[in-house]
Every structure is written in structure tokens, then in C-alpha cells.
């Protein structure tokens, strides 16, 4: 009974009671202050602006969290991109972090720090829910999509070679271990939020060995989850179905290899909100988890007080639920959703409103 009611009517609240058995938070508050320490990577571009919004709202809501600034500025070790030891130690100590967007230079300089973080902490599953906001009308209504993306390999393995001038080989690495880890998590997650269906999105007609392995692992694991119906779907069919009938996925969780998940989740954001500014995510590992917005550093609007902080705020709500601070999560989530629903003067430009990052933040604080 509980399983069918957990996810309904809430945005990003699926982790409240229905915690999967994998990747649970084991951190403890400081025994003296009663507060949890959470490393905060504010990020680039709009990162500092939307991070300030989170900090202001958390302070107003009296959330028992102390932020620890976390610098992940790139360091090169034997030519490989890595992050400072202090950041690794802080995140390993506190077992959780909140992260703003990190920009990646194109074609030169350091490798993506987003990927480096996911690899460093083995954050194997990226949970990306995309839901319509109640009373905020977009082209599509009642969209409620949950996507889990493999987060450590696939096309993001960073293995590329020049075979000969003008010929590049880029390797999509798929391993049984990583596939098993994310698909098992996806089964557990589907069960925990009370959905009856897990859809494996793939292209094994073409990527016969790589996606074939991913699909076969799912089929093998399915016998351990007789309460969940496993379906497989070619990615091109998924794209068409999700655009024409997004409501047909409201009883399902989807899981897919890395790049498909990156692309599909932006599509899901567009369908649910018409913007990237609302979609949160959780990068889950066995020990550590890092929460971040799906969007990037939005350099086109950085420093202009225009960014929508909701995606990072909802990521922080997912984090609070993950940490068991459910009441604070619900309070902040409700304040955000009712602010967005309250009219265009309280919505940022990406939602066709006139609010600034700071006026939206004020409005949320007034609704706490
Ligand atoms: N997880 C991460 O930290 C990610 C980082 N990136 C990095 O971000 C940089 C910019 O990437 P883009 O491809 O331009 O994608 P982007 O997500 O930064 O921006 C795409 C479009 O969405 C808008 N947008 C994004 N977030 C918004 C917000 N909170 N409020 C209002 N509008 C918003 C932007 O203004 C832009 O028009 C790149 O360096 C990229 O590597 C990109 C995606 C994810
Ligand atoms: O790291 C980047 O530059 C982009 C990362 C990204 O799009 C993602 O995987 O979320």
C-alpha cells in the first residue's frame, strides 16, 4: 500500500520514505552542535548565485547543516585531471556533498571535473527525476519521469585515440560490474518508490555487444525482482514515446547507459518544465553521494541575477531526504513549489517570469 503512495503528488520527494537499500546515508551529526557538515562545491558560471539562494533558504528554514566550502579546482597528476586532496578527504569524511555546475573547457585544458568527481567517489547511479510543477502550465501536463543513468563509464570513459590523421577512435566502455551495479540500484529504486515497471533503454540492435551486455545483465537480475516488470526499449522508440506520450512512463523508472541518460534527461526536463532550471539529480555511490542540478554553468546568463536556483534547490531537497532530514526537505520543497505556482512575478525568466534569482529566493523564504 505504502509503495503506491510514496511518489504521488510530490516533486523530488521520492527519496523521503522509499529509500533504496543501496547507497544509504550513514553520516552522523556533530554530537555537540547537532548539525551535519556538508561540503558545498559552489561551481562556475551561475553556480555562486544559485548556491547563495540555497544557503539563504537553508538558513531561513533553520536546517541543521553547516556548509564546508569545497574547492575542486583541477590538479594534474601524471597528466591526469584530479581534484585536491582536501576536497577528497572532506567529502569522504562527511559522506555527502552539494555541488553547483562545473564548466569544462572544450578541446583543451582539464578533463570534466563533473566526471572526475563521479569517478573519484564511484558515484555509479545518477537519479534524475523530471516532474511537472503543480499549477505551473507548460506544453505538457502531469509529466512524471524518473531516469537513472549509468554514471561512470560508457561514452564518458574518456578513452580516445588518434588512429591516423583524420581518424579517431572513441571507446564506449561497458562492463558487467558497472552495469550490474546501476541496474540493481534501478530495481531497488523502482521498488522503493512503488513503481511496477523498470524500462531498460538501449540500442543493442546496433551496439550489439556493449548495449547487449547491459540488457542481458538486466534480464539476469530480473529474477531477483519478481514484483517488478522488466521491459527493454530501443532509445529511438523511447524518444518518440516520451515526446508523444510522456504520461505512459508515470508508472515506470528508466535506466540506461551514460550518454543516452545525459541526453534523455535534458529532453525530460524540457517536457516537464520547458527549462533546465527545475531538474535536480542525485549521484549515488555505495559510500558517498553528491547532489547537483542537471544543468550546466549557463555562461550566457552568469552574473546577471537571472538564473533559476530551483534545480539546485530541489537537488538539496533530495539530499535532505537522503540524509533523513525529511521534515526540512518537505518544508523547503513546498515553499519552492508554491512560489513557482504563485504567478509569473515569482518565476525566473526561463519560466517566462520576471523574478530575479534573489527575488525568487526572497519569495521562497516568505513561504517557508
Ligand atoms: N553537471 C554539470 O556541472 C554540468 C556542467 N556543464 C558545463 O556547463 C557549461 C555550459 O554548458 P551548456 O551546454 O551551455 O549547458 P547549460 O545547462 O549551462 O545551459 C543550457 C541553457 O539552459 C539555460 N540554463 C541552464 N541552467 C539554467 C538555470 N538554472 N536557470 C535558467 N536558465 C538555465 C542556459 O542559460 C542555456 O541557455 C559547459 O562548460 C559544460 O561543460 C554542462 C552540463 C552539466
Ligand atoms: O562535465 C561536463 O562538462 C558535462 C557533464 C554533463 O553534461 C553531465 O554529464 O551531467
From TrEMBL:
Keyword Magnesium: yes
Keyword Metal-binding: yes
Domain Isopropylmalate dehydrogenase-like: 37-364
InterPro entries recorded: IsoCit/isopropylmalate_DH_CS, Isocitrate_DH_NAD, IsoPropMal-DH-like_dom
Cellular compartments per GO CC: mitochondrion
Lineage top rank: taxon: Eukaryota
Gene3D superfamilies given in the database record: Isopropylmalate Dehydrogenase (3.40.718.10)
Catalysed reaction equations from the record: D-threo-isocitrate + NAD(+) = 2-oxoglutarate + CO2 + NADH
Annotated GO biological process: isocitrate metabolic process; tricarboxylic acid cycle
E.C. numbers: 1.1.1.41
Pfam families xref list: Iso_dh
Essential cofactor(s): Mn(2+); Mg(2+)
Molecular function terms, GO-annotated: isocitrate dehydrogenase (NAD+) activity; magnesium ion binding; NAD binding
Broad EC category: oxidoreductase
Keywords: Magnesium, Metal-binding, NAD, Oxidoreductase, Transit peptide
Record-stated family: Belongs to the isocitrate and isopropylmalate dehydrogenases family.
PANTHER family referenced in this protein's UniProt entry, alphabetically: DECARBOXYLATING DEHYDROGENASES-ISOCITRATE, ISOPROPYLMALATE, TARTRATE (PTHR11835), ISOCITRATE DEHYDROGENASE [NAD] SUBUNIT ALPHA, MITOCHONDRIAL (PTHR11835:SF34)
Description of how the protein assembles with itself and partners: Octamer of two non-identical subunits IDH1 and IDH2.
Protein name as annotated: Isocitrate dehydrogenase [NAD] subunit 2, mitochondrial
Organism of provenance: Vanderwaltozyma polyspora (strain ATCC 22028 / DSM 70294 / BCRC 21397 / CBS 2163 / NBRC 10782 / NRRL Y-8283 / UCD 57-17) (Kluyveromyces polysporus)
